[in-house]
């Protein structure tokens, strides 16, 4: 006979769990236009919360404190955008020379293919045109343009959401306290407090990691004499915040730009070597010390979460997947019946030592 758990057989609980996961995924997929901007605003609000608390403790009006913190964040973002825009502008000025350089590389590749694979230039042009038609018919370009047109509303909504979340944070905090019974008030406060520290630690660690990786990349590119060294170094570090996938995209972009601005294939090889070395250092030293110490999630769940987030909400979903899973782990570890899920998300190696979740049972928390 199947094991009974909380009055329901195991297969029924499994069905309910799968249906709940499917429902949540469907809601995220359908409502991504609303959920994603709000989620980013929530992250920004949590990140700016220490600044607001600091100002309010010094008798600064809450509205003024929020506006000051938002202006600081806008100033920082504007500085980053200005740097990128100036680098892109310099890049566009060299487009005529880049076209000539690319034509030279294309001619070399065509010659190599003709000699080694007996593929004529006419056949190569036909294959390239056919591939371009397939990309056009797939609707990828249209989806990309559509995504670009959606950026402006998000930019407008982010500061509005962030301001309101910071302004009504006491009411939101009280709401989460009141939906649970009084017996679990301390546990709810602990979950909210730890979730806040996890998000703050993750975001600050991510910014610090991006700065370190950008500096190392740029220094390596400068030593090699690569053009647009600072731009490529920052671009690679910016894309690196997308776990596992971002660095692959950065490597391709950096290789293409270097190939278009250099006559030496050794420069492309050097760029790839630097990115590989920096990625190794980041994965084994920078990330564990700066970021991963705040977010205790195993690699398998991280990869699955990033892929699922990308499938449901694109690149934004990939970025939001890590802090979302970290918050879920905090909740699962403290809710009766969900401890195994928290254990599954964690990074404790199974073996002779048992997880502390099962060594010491945490106080239970139930929704009333």
Protein traits:
single chain, 368 residues, mainly alpha, two-stranded antiparallel sheet, 15 helices, 1% strand, globular, disordered N terminus, disordered C terminus
Structural notes for this entry:
This protein is 80% helix and 1% strand. A two-stranded antiparallel sheet has the order 1-2. The longest helix is centred in the middle third of the chain and has 40 residues. It is globular.
What is the spatial order of strands in the main beta sheet?
1-2
Number of helices: 15
The H/E string reads EEHHHHHHHHHHHHHHH
Number of strands: 2
Gyration radius (Cα, Å) is: 25 Å
Shape: globular
- Uncertain spans: 1-5, 138-148, 350-368
Strand content: under 5%
Kindly report the average pLDDT value: 77
SSE blueprint:
Blueprint: E1 4-5, E2 8-9, H1 10-30, H2 32-57, H3 62-93, H4 95-117, H5 121-137, H6 140-149, H7 151-167, H8 169-178, H9 185-224, H10 229-239, H11 246-261, H12 265-291, H13 299-332, H14 339-345, H15 356-359
Antiparallel strand pairs: 1-2
Helix pairs in contact: 2-3, 2-7, 2-13, 3-7, 8-9, 9-10, 9-12, 9-13, 10-11, 11-12, 13-14
């Amino acid at each position: 006979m199947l094991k009974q758990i909380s009055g329901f057989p195991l297969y029924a609980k499994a069905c309910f769990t799968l249906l709940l996961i499917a429902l949540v995924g469907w809601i995220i997929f359908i409502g991504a236009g609303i959920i994603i901007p709000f989620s980013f605003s929530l992250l920004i609000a949590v990140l700016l919360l220490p600044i607001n608390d600091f100002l309010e403790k010094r008798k600064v009006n809450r509205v003024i404190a929020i506006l000051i913190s938002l202006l600081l964040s806008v100033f920082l973002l504007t500085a980053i955008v200005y740097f990128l825009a100036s680098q892109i502008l310099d890049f566009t000025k060299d487009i005529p020379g880049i076209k000539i350089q690319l034509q030279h590389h294309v001619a070399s590749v065509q010659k190599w293919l003709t000699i080694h694979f007996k593929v004529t230039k006419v056949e190569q042009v036909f294959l390239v045109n056919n591939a371009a038609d397939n990309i056009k018919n797939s609707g990828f370009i249209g989806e990309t343009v559509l995504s670009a047109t959606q950026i402006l509303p998000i930019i407008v909504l982010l500061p509005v959401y962030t301001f309101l979340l910071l302004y009504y944070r006491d009411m939101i905090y009280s709401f989460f306290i009141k939906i649970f019974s009084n017996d679990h008030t301390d546990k709810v406060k602990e979950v909210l407090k730890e979730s806040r520290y996890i998000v703050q630690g993750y975001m600050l660690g991510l910014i610090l990691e991006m700065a370190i990786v950008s500096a190392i990349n740029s220094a390596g590119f400068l030593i090699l004499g690569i053009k647009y060294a600072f731009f490529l170094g920052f671009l690679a570090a910016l894309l690196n915040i997308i776990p596992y996938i971002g660095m692959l995209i950065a490597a391709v972009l950096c290789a293409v730009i270097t190939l278009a601005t250099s006559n030496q294939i050794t420069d492309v090889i050097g760029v790839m070597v630097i990115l590989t070395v920096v990625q190794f250092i980041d994965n084994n030293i920078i990330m564990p010390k700066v970021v991963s110490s705040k977010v205790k999630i195993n690699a398998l769940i991280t990869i699955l979460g990033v892929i699922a987030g990308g499938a449901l909400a694109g690149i934004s979903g990939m970025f939001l997947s890590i802090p979302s899973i970290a918050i879920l782990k905090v909740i699962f570890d403290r809710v009766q019946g969900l401890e195994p899920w928290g254990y599954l998300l964690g990074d404790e190696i199974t073996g002779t030592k048992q997880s502390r979740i099962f060594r010491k049972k945490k106080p239970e928390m139930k929704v009333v």
